[in-house]
User: What shape does this take?
Amino acid sequence: MEHGLLECLKKITKRRVQEVVTMPHLTSGNGHQIGLTLQATKKSSNATRMPQPVHTLRLSTPLCEPVSLDASDQSTIPQSTAWYGITDRGRVREHNEDNFAILELADKVLFVLADGMGGHDAGEVASRIATETVCNVVKENHVTSTDYPRLVERAVQAANIEVLREGVRRRSDLGTTLSVALVVNDIVYAANVGDSRIYWIENGSISQITKDHSLVAKLVEAGKLTKEEARNHPQSNLLIRTVGNDETIKADTFRVSLKKGGTLLLCTDGLWGDVTDDEIHRVCTLEENARAAGDRLVEMAKEHSGKDNITVVVVKAL
Assistant: This one.
């Protein structure tokens, strides 16, 4: 059935839609299990409800509008939470090296996002390995481990080892950013390496939860650059910490409370590099629907330049 739907989409849109790697319990954002297999993923509390459809899809489409697939199974969505994830190649890059995954685990939901690097195809491989490894580690340990900050950190460390091993096997320098958010009840346990960001957005404010592990971020912290100067700096993409480059890495970990009406946003630099924090805040505040917010953010990044791959995961606390 999925294959037929995919072929239909290809004919209608004349674009290549990349299927999702099959993983145990890897689901779309509205709880529908994905059973299609190709090369890369771009893809509760006791009571559950879903006030609006939300969607997850991995795209690799040239210079095109984002596409999403609807699904009707809404039985495993945590109460009062809605999410949507989408990735787009942008207007300049030949390949999409971003990956994201959304994994439902009974009373928990895991959101993972990675922006790979390493040349032709290698970046996509690194980000795929990282997202899959984090999902596998959390899935295997979330029942027995109640130390959720430690669990998230373990998952990041495991992803680092797997990406490093693949780089050694390929004799290539693989690397990726990695942002992870494990939602347990109303608490977010987050971790990051690199410059993919996690934001918490409310009516009156936008806060960057994570810290960028980049040269320009260090210069901003030291007072040598403003945030706007850092955005346009010629070395803004130079990272000082990534997954897959060293045998051990330090992952920053964070804890955030979800509050009704707020938005948790995971995104790669393809979004925040082109769209300002004020613009992100405005979209996430005005758009009550997670899908509408995600689609609009991607379109804004492409309108501004679309110079990089763009990936966003929007989580609404309802």
The chain has a mean pLDDT of 78. The two ends are 32 Å apart (CA to CA).
